[in-house]
Amino acid sequence: MLSICVFASGRGSNLQALLDAIAAGRVAARVLLVISNKSAAGALEIARARGIPALHTSDTHFRGEADYCHHLLDLLRAHRCDFIVLAGYLKKVPAEVVQKYKDRIINIHPALLPSFGGKGLYGHHVHEAVLAYGCKVSGATVHLVDLEYDSGAPILQKCVPVYETDDAETLAARVLEAEHEILPQAVQLFAENRVTIRGHRACIAPSPR
Fold first, then answer.
1. How far apart are CA 107 and CA 152, in angstroms?
2. 54: helix, strand or coil
3. What pLDDT was estimated at residue 209?
4. Active site annotation includes 61
5. Which residue in 119, 191, 122, 195 sits closest to 156, CA to CA?
6. Strand, coil or helix: what is 181?
7. pLDDT at 94
8. pTM of the complete model
9. Are 208 and 169 in contact (CB under 8 A)?
10. pLDDT tens digit string along 160-204?
11. Pick from 84, 144, 133, 143: nearest CA to 110
């Protein structure tokens, strides 16, 4: 069973989807800690309502990245977290944390990577870029986190249509439904030890069932 820390910056709908999937028995994991860089993040309230430790911590609280990084690693060790899920987290995770959790840290991105990823492409900025480009399809990607923005190996993707009548808000709502579906599925793949990393590719073993 995976012992997870979730990092989130916003309202926490992906955290809620993951917790609901765990409660329903679809994901063999437990969320032991939630961290946010925003003190008013809804994700913190969702966690606290479930009795999960929920902490506001930011690099602005520390003298430098090294101190911040050590603090995060101390929290992860103290709560015995062996896996990290970035669920709408809008800060870059320190390199040392990424390296310590190599192949054990995933992110959900609201587009079909490698398209529409990278620094500055998050939230509504992604959907505005998709619409401006004239794409007919968008979607969501769960990917491994490495040292660059949105460049880690994809684990799961799900497509959604883009309609002529869409704006960033309506497209975001459709993509969010896909996020809620594939994030718990990806976590379960890791819980079942079905993900193997070969170079820059994530290979998924068939279900034993």
1. 9
2. strand
3. 63
4. no
5. 195
6. helix
7. 95
8. 0.96
9. no
10. 999 999 999 999 999 999 999 999 999 999 999 999 999 889 999
11. 143
- Residue 62, number of CB atoms within 10 A of its CB: 15
DSSP letter (8 states) at residue 50: T
pLDDT for 208:
72
Which member of 79, 109, 127, 143 is catalytic?
A: 109
Task: List phi, psi (to 5°) of 157.
Answer: -140, 150
Q: Which residues of the chain have pLDDT under 70?
A: 209
Residue 33, both tokens: 């800690």
Q: Amino acid letter at 63?
A: R
Q: How many Å separate Cα 92 from the centre of its chain? A: 12
Give, as one character, the DSSP assignment of residue 192. Answer: T
What's at 188, amino acid-wise? Q
- Chain Cα centroid distance, residue 73: 18
Q: What are phi and psi for residue 158, nearest 5 degrees?
A: -140, 130
Q: What is the identity of the amino acid at 174?
A: R
pLDDT for the residue numbered 200:
86
Domains of the chain: 1-101 (3.40.50.170), 109-209 (3.40.50.170)
- Cα–Cα distance, 76 to 55 (Å, whole number): 12
